[in-house]
Amino acid sequence: MSDVSSIRAPEPAPMGLHPRVNRLADFVKSHQQPILFAGVCLQAIVLIAMIAIHAAPYLVGERIILKVVPIDPRDFFRGDYVILGYEANRLPAGGIPGIAPPRFWWSRRDRSQESNDKTVYVTVEPDADGRHWHAKDYSTEMPSTGKYLRGKYSSSNVFGAPITYGIEAYYVQEGEGQRLEQRRNSQHLSAEIAVAPWGQAKLVRLIEE
Amino acid sequence: MEPRELSDKQRKWLEAELADWNRQELISADQATRILGLYESAEAVGVRKQSKFTFAIMSLAATLVGFAVLLLVGYNWDALPRAAKLFAIFGTILGTHAGALYLRFVRGAPRAGEIVAFLGCLFYGAGIWLVAQVFHLDSHYPDGMWWWAVGVLPFALCLDTVLLHCLLVALLGTWAGMEIIGFSNLPVRLFWGWWNFPNGAYSLPLMALPGLIWAYRKNSPFTAWLYVPLLGWWIVLQAFAWDMEWQMVYIVGMVGALFLVIAEVHRVGSPFAVAYRFWGTALVAGTLIPLTYTDFHRELYRWYGPAVDSSMFGDLAQLAALVILAAAVLAACAYLRSSGAVSSIPARLVELARRQWVPVSLAIGMAGMLLGSIITRGLDSDGAAVWLVILANVGMVGLALWLMRVGLADDRGRPFIFGVLYFLLWAILRYIDLFAGMGGMLGAALMFFLVGAALFGVGIFWRKRKAVRHV
Q: What ipTM was estimated for this complex?
């Protein structure tokens, strides 16, 4: 014989919801069509906004070429994209005013973590070869003149790239990454960067030399 | 009035009982027919099961198509120019959603519309990663998951099935993990300058709460099963955000105890309580086990003792914040589940503590053990660890007995059996701790014999009890 206790009639919500919550839920239910349409528009707006924000340097920025340097051998290649390092990613020998130097990387709490996510401005100037550019000055204050890159500092990556500019990853077709990685490690790779007047940098292309 | 849903098993039982009552002339044949008419017919049950099966298969197909598109985006085909890729994904997203709206509102096929909308939301996620790939975006990648979840939320709330909620919960859980573990600080500008605030993915509860409310409104316990562990996961991750890793075990235990309190706030037999009770029991029962070992406390002291550069004041402040949050949850539960005679919040809290004194005691016990650990951490004292171990053992036995009592009181087998098993587990662990060296193989054999006999006895007891109550 079947278990009587397993019979349960459908019951209303066990915790009575607040009347305001019920009213809001009823409103959503009765306005499904416009809300779903708004949801579709929201998705389109998010994608358009992403494109608009990140396409701006390509449209209004100047182009410079940075030399790509080998990065820490403990980093790994992730199959679909090449990790790029630049001289400007590393901390200068004298440190940066306003950024606490890293102490013990194994310490749970060190003062350099107070500097995490601080904005760093790196002024760039042309190399002697007239083709490439290199980092000149580092500061947490926005420069008033010259061309500069705007980056972020992270103490947790102190052996890799403590300063990042959003140009450290280049996405390639599956299978192409290893070849570019070898060019990078043998220092035969440069990157063309679009730099907006406000310091935002975007990768345009990689140049094999 | 719509016929109520009934499973095959329930319908067969009801038909047999009605036939029996009719034979005993308790009800007439007409009354039996009218009672059966209140519920779905056998054919309707079959159609509903078939419809659910078809929906599940189509949902799985949509998921696989969505993954295929994500992988296609990931392949990053060089032959296709950047603009063509963007046009293609935009067209796909808008076309899919247009199809979903058409199916739902014009063709009157809501289920098909839901599957197509689900596909559209997967394509939307693929679009986010495609834009990131086209523009070589690498910074703060969790933002992609967050915006994906934001785009899915209106669909989850407006549509009728749990499909979009599954996607939303997966996205929010992944985002919280990426955000908190990968990016520890949120730079916040206050009037005295920039300050690093712990990054706790604070918008997750705001985005998860509408889904949980949806679950109650739609009477969908399965959806509650999705959101309850999501909220538990978020709370546990706060320990990482606020540098409380060494207190994690106590925080997890407190969260579990609060889930048990929330479970008991529901009406007896409510299917919604099961999710809270299951996760609450799993968390509390799981954390109590290591806490009953002195070695565990010694290891905590060793790794997070005096070598840690953190102040006791900071840890006590964090404990106070946890206690305040727990008290707020208890106050909310007391407000929701109190008898009409009780009006003030303190009186409701007392009533809640009286009716649910075991889960409340477990939450207080976890906070107490955490306080004891903070105070004695610098002392590296075995004596302090012994007291914590005793408290944890009391907690284990208390939880086991409470679960057995809940099972007996509510006539539910699972809490009762789990309580029995948990008690036996405690007995076995303590035997191994205290007597394994002395008893040897004979002792172990006796222990297993006694445990087996206890389980036999419990099984026979429960069967007799069910027979007495249901004949």
A: 0.71
